Every structure is written in structure tokens, then in C-alpha cells.
Amino acid sequence: MNLNQLAGRIANYLSKELALDTNKIDTLRFGFEIIFAALIKGFILISLAYLLGILPEVVFAMVCGAIYRLLSGGAHCNGYWRCLTLGVLSYLGAGELGIYLGRYLSIDLLVYLLLTGYLLFSLCVIALVPGEVPYKKITSISERNKFKILSLVYLSSWLGISIIVVHYVNSSLALAGFIAVMIQTISFSPPGYKIIHQLDNLLVGLAKLFIERRYLTNEADR
């Protein structure tokens, strides 16, 4: 049973037990998928980050990016494992880049970068949030404005915490968080949807190529 089937069975069971409308099943299933996906992604990310020696940076990036994504929405792959792959690579990349760039950027320059990023991200939020996500289409103006405000409040909190981290903890942590927030901002922009779609297709092609090669190898060994 894959993740989609497991979430679907739980959603169907709960909808019957709680006498929910049938049109709520897809929304409920998607919610369970998100929860299961977050648990699996968290376990894999923390394990790999620990092995690579970048655990603090990856955890900080994951927290910064995940909260922002819940509020702002954004592009998704059409398959869970492809979405997981891109997510893991993004956060690991943010952690590695945070450590690498932290060696070369002064505290003053990093604070300037954070402030500039905050202004640009805020403009993107005002113009584009909430980004479209599966089974959660928001058309109400009041709902859209609510997510814009929540995203802006979050960005202000992120900026304040990041500046404190730069001065009193570690520049690499703040940089990793900045990269994660930047990636998430791109994900709910029109170019971001195109990029995710292209990467999704690329991963599908790589998976098909791997399966075909494995099949040919097995046939040759017979």
C-alpha cells in the first residue's frame, strides 16, 4: 500500500465514523498525506543531515521553510516520492550552502542580505500568496487576505529571529534559513510552478530509465 492509499483508507474510515460529507474525503485524505509525508521527510532529513554533519543548519532551514509553506502554499510534484526527493535535496542544499557561504559573509553584509530578502519576499507575498495547492483552492478575498497577513507576520518574525541568530548563535544557521525561505518564495511564484513541473517530469523520466535498465539487466542475467 502506498502513502496515497493509506491516507485514503483512513480518510474513508473517519468520514464514515464521523458521518462527514463525501466531498470532504479528498480534503481529509490530502491532510493525512501531508502529516505522513512530514513525518517521513523529517526522519529522512534529520538522519541524512546528522550523517553529513549539518544537522543544526538543516533543522533551522526545515523549520523556517515548513512554517512559511503552510501559510503561503506553493507548487507540488504530482507524486509523493518525487516531492520528497526535491524537499530533501532542497533542505540539505540549504544546510550545505549555509555553512559554505557563512565563511565568507560578514555579519553586516548578512544582515543587509536578510533585510533585502525580507522586502523582496514581502512583495511576493502581497502579490502572490496564497499559492495554489491540491484540494485547497482559496477563492474568498477575506481568506486570501488572511493568508497574506499571516505570511507577512511570519516573515517579520523570521527576520527578527534570524538577526538574533546572526549576532548571537551562528551565521550559517541564518543563511540556511534564508535559503529555505527564498526557495519557498520561488515555489509559489509563476516561474516556481514551471520549475517544479519540469523537475517533476525529469524525475519521472529518470525513474522510468532506471526501471528499464533494471529490467534489461534482469533479462540479460536469465
From TrEMBL:
The chain crosses the membrane at residues 30-48, 83-103, 109-129, 149-169. Keywords: Cell membrane, Hydrolase, Membrane, Protease, Quorum sensing, Transmembrane, Transmembrane helix. The keyword Hydrolase applies. The keyword Ubl conjugation does not apply. GO terms for molecular function: peptidase activity. One of its GO terms (biological process) is quorum sensing. InterPro entries: AgrB. One of its GO terms (cellular component) is membrane. This is Protein possibly involved in post-translational modification of quorum-sensing peptides.
